[in-house]
Amino acid sequence: MALINKIREKSGWAVGAIAIGLGVFVVGGDLLGPNSRLLGNNANTVGEIAGEEIEFQEFDQVLQQVKADYENRTGRAANEGELAMLREQAWNQLIFKIALQKEYDRLGIEVTEEELADMVQGNNIHPAVQQAFTNPQTGEFDRNQVVQYLQNLDQMGPEARPMWVNFEQSIYADRLQSKYMNLLTKTVYITDTEAKNYYQAQNASANIRALFVPFVSVSDSAVQVTDAQLQDYYDRNKELYKVDEGRSVEFVTIPVNASPEDSSYINQEIGTLSQQFAAATNDSAFVNANSDVPFDGTYRNPGQLPEPLRNQLPLEEGKVYGPYTENGTLALFKITDVREADASAVRASHILIRPENDTPEAKAAAQAKAQDVLTQIRNGADFAQMAAQHGTDGTASTGGDLGWFPQGQMVSEFDEAVFNYSGTGLLPNLVETEYGYHIVKVTAPKSNQEYQIAGVQRAIEPSESTRDAAYAVADELSGTSESAEELRENVARNPSLVKEEATAIGKNNIVVNNLNNARELVRWAYAKDTDVGDVSPVFEIDDQFVVATLTNKREKGYAKLEDVREELTAAVRNELKAQQIIAKLEGQQGSLDEIAASYGPDASVRTADNVTFASTAIPGLGVEPVAVGKAFGLKPGARTAPFEGQSGVLMVELTQMNPAPEINDFSNVKEQLSGTRTNSVQSNAFEAIREKADVKDNRVRFF
Description:
It is found in: Cell inner membrane. GO terms for molecular function: peptidyl-prolyl cis-trans isomerase activity. The chain has 703 residues and is of the alpha+beta class. The protein folds into five domains: 11-43, no CATH class; 109-186, no CATH class; 205-242 and 564-658, no CATH class; 245-256 and 464-555, Roll (Chitinase A, domain 3); 258-461, Roll (Chitinase A, domain 3), CATH 3.10.50.40. The longest helix is centred in the N-terminal third of the chain and has 28 residues, at 80-107. The protein is extended and about 85 Å long.
């Protein structure tokens, strides 16, 4: 049975390898969901990959296998969020299997029966087989275990043979993938010139000065953007505006929160339970029968108690404390047992003054400062405020509070000082440790008692009548709104309702803004009979009702100009501002400083040393690839004409070129560049295959 379990675990071996190897191919919904489009009217078709229609049954078979593997590994059923992830994995596996198999067939890549046998029990054992059939005594692969396993396969139960077939298929797929990967990898070759250029780009640097005039120095009102200019910019930069399929909605949420009447009812119920709890003779049974959280018999020191109980120390055995309200929960606590602990616990605060270094002078200065702070606190200064002002560790932001801690947890000098102090209050002397000098205040006396508590905890939940009232509001909003405009008008008339907007929702999205389980809303937005302006029925999402209207359908391809008008306007406005700035700078003589002074206060000159060609960024100016490229094309002392950058207009002057150190052996550079190029070749090839496969994803109709 243990060996069968190992085979079950290893049957997913290739799936993991495929996921790593594919890289960009399995990045999830952002590539495979929104990039696709709905199919025709075939009700059983989940999608299409490389011209092959994928029927629901075929997809479901893969999904069930992926789901079974996941649940075997985790030991529990997948929740809704995990199911969405598993559906994505199953879809990716189908894309991988179908699209790449066509490439394998075209290139003649195959794994023969003889090769498969060799991987299982021959001379070239597959790593997954080696791991599954390792002799526990020797730690080595045992071929006899494989032979014995295969001979007894039919005697191991009905699931054994299908499991083995799946295992063989996984290593078969992994070998195919390895061959294809190797074929791609062998295409990578780095010449000496490439290695030298790469080395120079990484190690040569330039010292530059740059005159910079930001776009914001010209007011938006000084630039008028016309529709013709927007169209011209769009046509020139159309490739920047490729988009995936998406939907935009406006929606209103009606939360289902407990009403004051609900809270009052639960408080009355807790009041009755408090009396019964005090009289109960079997506290654990009472808790399990009346609490949302089962009985936990753990003994706790004061620092581990709920905060309301810590404020009541010392606690009495048999007494019921509460009710307390916290995070939407009402709680009663009964002390069921009190016992002496092996170690005491205490609560304290401190202010740590660290020396700047290990020199005697630095330590003396830190001690003097700590003594001064201690004196101020003795004279009435607030401890927490002094901790916030002078503390040098993470507790400064919490007034120096260390919370409760048991004896032996802190460094010995600190531990001894605190636990030898009786009662509460400010320790009279500084405590020196390896970290520095501490001003210490004991805020709760040490205690060696541990408490066993029984807690009755009830969530303050909305009643059915409260839920019905919230639904009635949502239902009326949906029923009286026949268009997006009517929905907006109805929301405007009700000040308690707030409208939100979500744009570019992918067809496989689960989350929409702050709605975490909005799958039904997404499916409605992508339904074929949902048109722009339609208003949805009421959706129950988490603890709220939602009504939405579809405001935009975006198809895969190039964005409509109107959909990106705001973004285009900003880009064109910057172009026009750049033209104005350049016109003012052109023809000016003198140094960059003189030109900046002549231009006005909006112009500044920045200095940046050791700028590398590969970085594309200039310290103090940010990412400016054009500026970096122009700088490396200059001779020392030369400068560029004014030109448009990322966030303003620049003039770049090269003050010094720092050549890369001379080396004779570029083998390490070649190896580094080869690794980068290999990864790029593989990911680019897979992306090209995916694009060629023309994946059409229609899962939104089913899930």
